[in-house]
């Protein structure tokens, strides 16, 4: 059974359950939503990511969560905290935040609302010294949100992801230190 982890004004962020892979496959796995994330995934790929997140929660007490809209009870995305684990990333092991929102809920502020809660959780509950977020340079809405969250561009952390098309390379990173976060409060 899923556990409630974080709650905002409009959202509940809960742990992932095994049955959530099929739900994510149906609701979030569209070409436009997955455009900058390597494209639409097969169900077994989503199941593997969910298993990884469930394992992270069991081991570290954090991971990615399902983002549920309180008003409707609908899955609107996923968001969370993990360790950078891409083999090409120069900062493996750093705390990484991330999000994904279904297309019919874009431009409603859900990603920002969820990520502010995740950032607070990362710094206060998990003692993260710095957070990073990864995206493609052409994914303008993503890095603009990173900037709104107080994150700064870190070109020194860029890397190429061979699984992504040339248009989505390099992977770029933004960061937010604990001190920057504390000074923004």
UniProtKB/TrEMBL annotation:
One of its GO terms (molecular function) is acyltransferase activity, transferring groups other than amino-acyl groups. Keywords: Transferase. Residues 11-179 form the N-acetyltransferase domain. Gene3D superfamilies: 3.40.630.30. The keyword Transferase applies. The keyword Transferase applies. InterPro entries: Acyl_CoA_acyltransferase (IPR016181), GNAT_dom (IPR000182), N-acetyltransferase (IPR051531). CDD domains: NAT_SF (cd04301). It comes from the Bacteria. Residues 156-185 are annotated as: Disordered. SUPFAM superfamilies: Acyl-CoA N-acyltransferases (Nat). This is GNAT family N-acetyltransferase. It comes from Parerythrobacter jejuensis. The lineage of its organism: Bacteria, Pseudomonadati, Pseudomonadota, Alphaproteobacteria, Sphingomonadales.
